[in-house]
Amino acid sequence: MKFTHEPMFWFLLVAVSLLAIGIYGLLSRKSLLKMIISIEIIVNGANVGLAAFATQHGADGIILAFFAIALAALEVAVGLTLLIILARKYGITFPEKLNNLRW
Question: Tell me: the pLDDT tens digits for 25-34?
Answer without folding.
Answer: 999 988 888 9
